[in-house]
Design brief:
- The protein is an alpha/beta fold and 265 residues long.
- The protein is built from 11 helices and 8 strands.
- The strands form 2 sheets. A 6-stranded mixed beta sheet has the order 6-5-3-1-7-8, sandwiched between helices.
- Helix 10 links the parallel strand 5 and strand 6.
- The radius of gyration is 30 Å and the shape is elongated.
Length: 265
């Protein structure tokens, strides 16, 4: 019989099967209590349904522990090392500059965020943000990619040349979200005339970029490279990527070293 004809109104055709389905609450109850599994357990072990349901939930928990907990137990100690495993009074036993003993030889990219904003320099209260990074990329027609070393210019050198030496606190610098951006882009080295915003307004990450980028990500930081001449050359050539090469002193267990980075066009 066609819908809407004969003895049945169109609104009721085909709805009987839908009305017989269990409600969402009933489906959730079956999922949480185990449904047929619990009934089978209760019947075969000659125990109450509530006891069988408890056994079912405990078994589920143990399965989760086995599938998730054991692998995490093996991985977490490798991620979260004790201080004594990484640093001693005489040397760094993990993550030292000796890892770069053969030098850094990679594509470098200058992100001139001050020029992208059309300002001489960032004021001491300002953050460098992910939006600033991407505005510089757009202006320069360049995109930071895997393995790149980035230099970020806020104009600090020009500020100090015109206004004299500036206090460390407060000082313009990166917002912590820039660390996530660098991780997503797989940046290999960070350098710039700023690091994190100082002081950084976080009790957990008082030196956000050092603590996240350097300590947690293992990303080398090149402190305060001279960027004025580099920025001028990039503007002259209308090219903001180049070959970056440098190397630390070969000091096993060393935590820092003087370097002389070179940008080759």
């Amino acid at each position: 019989m066609a819908p809407g004809t004969g003895d049945y109104p169109a609104s009721t055709v085909g709805t009987a099967a839908l009305d017989e389905r269990p409600s969402q609450e009933e489906q959730n109850e079956v999922f949480l209590t185990g449904g047929p599994i619990v009934k089978w357990t209760a019947r075969n072990l000659n125990i109450g349904v509530e006891t069988a349901s408890t056994i079912y939930q405990i078994a589920n928990f143990l399965i989760i522990v086995l599938l998730v907990g054991i692998p995490l137990g093996r991985v977490l100690p490798k991620i979260f090392r004790k201080r004594s495993q990484t640093l001693s009074p005489g040397r760094a036993s993990w993550g030292s500059i000796f890892a770069q003993k053969d030098g850094i030889f990679t594509r470098g990219v200058l992100l001139d965020v001050a020029a992208a904003r059309g300002i001489k320099w960032y004021e001491s209260h300002e953050y460098v943000t992910v939006a600033d990074f991407e505005a510089a990329e757009k202006r320069q027609n360049v995109k930071v990619g895997s393995g790149d070393a980035i230099f970020v210019r806020t104009g600090m050198e020009r500020m100090e040349a015109e206004m004299g030496e500036q206090d460390t606190y407060p000082r313009a610098g990166l917002h912590a979200s820039c660390a996530e951006w660098m991780h997503q882009r797989e940046v290999s080295v960070y350098g710039g005339d700023c690091i994190e915003k100082l002081p950084y307004p976080s009790e957990s990450f008082t030196s956000a970029i050092h603590m996240i980028v350097l300590a947690s990500m293992g990303l080398p930081i090149l402190d305060w490279p001279a960027l004025t001449e580099l920025a001028a050359k990039c503007e002259q050539l209308k090219r903001w990527d180049y070959l970056l090469t440098t190397a630390p002193l070969r000091i096993p267990g060393g935590t820092s070293s003087p370097i002389n980075p070179l940008a080759l066009f």
